[in-house]
Amino acid sequence: MEPLVSIVTASYNSEKTIAETIRSVIRQNYGNWEMIIVDDGSTDRSVGLIENIIKSEGRVRLIKNSENMGTARSRNRGLEEAGGKYITFIDSDDIWLEHF
User: Fold this and answer.
1) Angle at 49 between CA 53 and CA 15, to 5 degrees
2) Of 22, 39, 49, 93, which one has the fewest beta carbons inside 10 Å?
3) CA 70 to CA 51: how far, in whole Å?
4) Cα(62)–Cα(51) distance, rounded to whole angstroms?
């Protein structure tokens, strides 16, 4: 079995980009991954968009910070939840090619 890869994303007010970022992870040709998105107190529609995707993609998880803690602390929170043998990051406005 392929080792689990944990993908950590810090997200803050990323409603314009987060859905495509998640879709680019879903399209990966490597299938044993989990995506942990840590929302850092967004005030836009980011959380709703993420929750919508989670309904159909069980490998994506959302953690919500109760207050804005910044990118580094949000990433660290995601790392604490990661269960993979390998860990990587993708920013909320990045897109991966399918062979990343």
Assistant:
1) 135
2) 93
3) 21
4) 8
Which residue bears the tokens 């929170």? 77
CA distances from 30 to 5, 19, 53, 81 (A): 9, 19, 19, 21
Backbone phi, then psi, for 17, in 5-degree steps? -130, -25
pLDDT in the model for residue 1: 85
In angstroms, how far apart are the furthest CA atoms of the chain?
A: 40
Dist. CA 6–CA 80, nearest whole Å: 11
Instruction: Return d(Cα 14, Cα 37) in angstroms, integer.
Output: 11
- Alpha-helical segments (H) within the chain: 18-26, 46-54, 71-81
Residue 15: count other Cβ atoms within 10 Å of its Cβ. Answer: 17
Cβ atoms of residues 97 and 20 within 8 Å = no
User: Closest by alpha carbon to 72, among 93, 89, 59, 47?
Assistant: 89
